[in-house]
Amino acid sequence: MNPVIEVSVRHRLGAFELDASFESTGRLTALFGRSGSGKTSLVEIIAGLISPAQGRVVVDGQVLVDTQAGVFVPKHRRRIGYVFQDARLFPHLSVRQNLLFGRWFSPRDAASGSELAGVLDLLGIGHLLERRPGALSGGEKQRVAIGRALLSKPRLLLMDEPLASLDEARKAEILPYIERLRDEIGVPIVYVSHSVVEVVRLATTLVTVDQGRVTACGPTGEVMSRLDVAGLSGAVEAGSIIEARVAGHEEGYDLTRLETRAGTLQVARSAVPPGGRVRVRILASDVLISLGPPVGVSALNILPGRVVEIGARGRSGAVELLIDCGGETLLARLTVKSVDALGLAAGSPVHAVIKSVSIEGP
Amino acid sequence: MSDWLSPEEWSAVRLSLIVATTAMLASLPFGLAVAWLLARGRFWGKSILDAVVHLPLIMPPVVTGYLLLIWFGRRGPIGQFLYEYFGIVLSFRWTGAVLASAVMGFPLMVRAIRLSIEAVDRKLEDAAGTLGANRAWVFLVVTLPLCLPGILVGMILCFAKAMGEFGATITFVSNIPGETQTLPSAIYTFTQVPDGDAGAMRLTLISIAISVCALFVSEWLARLVARRIAVT
Hints:
Chain A: This is Molybdenum ABC transporter ATP-binding protein. The complex is a heterodimer. By secondary structure, chain A is of the alpha+beta class.
């Protein structure tokens, strides 16, 4: 499969130097890193708002920037939708005119009428059409901005921290819409974020950015668990992501049973109906290691596996272990003393023990 | 109404309105272009352009009028050129009064438009660009509507200045009844004759009425526009 997006650029912004390359085939590629790491500059280069000093940008097979060949496609001919952090709706136009803004400049086709209806339905903004942007809430503005970008028929959608300026309730309101966007619309998305929660929930491909450089790039689960990435951001605690299917609910105990490749997990009651697909994130510090199958413990989740790799000793006398449980990678953080006491080495068979209450629910 | 005003007074009122309106409309495209250059342009000599535009605001109007006479008179370099190639004569014609009042009102118009262009959020223009609009379209559908209040204020200021313009006009095109005698010149003429008080007072009242009307219209338009581009 050809990459949806290929970026390899060098650019200087004042004292800050950007030197980043990545490529992605994912439906939703997250650019993840702390503020000031250069994520926004990267998407501005992709959109054509910044012309990089050196490098190449290829989207969907079309070369948009190639400084060696002297190619620079101006922003209005790139067909790249951009959802800004601050929505940037046109204050002098109604919501309908904002949504149809891109239509004035893109080639018309017969299906355009139904397309508007489809986007209105997808984002739940049909009732806002005749309003002015000034009269919308933050969450509504952001949904209209997403719709406006979608209706300009982009070949790629850039979303620059679309949730950062919203409170928790509004974030929860918009996240499902972005998931639908990822799963139902055929437009690949590049999503900038510094929030682990958003990345875990949304990203299929994860690109981590630090001080203007790409530090890792790959499928979300893999990158998240990789040991060297674990210490990337102060806010980020190392953890692993496990894909799961809801097997059923235990109503009496308010628990949900999840089928994973590693085995059955029991977690706090989820709203997702049986059969639904979810991702759970398990923090490395919540995983306990036992050599034999533990008896008489309260923890409900016991997953057999094998140690793959033991990481370097960290500052606090702890190490991180990669454990392979039936194909899923689990990250555990132990003290060096425990590792020595148990005589753990790559290849040791172990049991990973996780309390249900410590799993971040789907 | 025509009993109340003599034919000469009427023609002064009519001429003033025509001159001021023409001056306002004719200088609008130039005002927009210069305001755009000053707000967004980066070129050598920008501060010189800025100074030249503002000069009529600072210089005595008589000086401006005299310079116009030197350059745009029948013998002046520009006036001769206009006459030979286009057959246009400005000196001692109402068109010259338009030029004089336009030049005097120009800095006020440019100032108001420039400030409003500078206040337009460039981020909105970027957003329009990513939606497929080229620079010309961005200007027409985003920048221009967003600085409409400033443009209206600039037009009204230019109109008001043109209505009241006296020094440059009388120096450049003199005070010919029916051709270049605008309201202020007519009032001035009345004050120079022994029994002119009544006429001067009538024209003064009309002058005040026009100014107040212009003020109300501009307020009303500004409110209308502000409601359309309400706070984000």
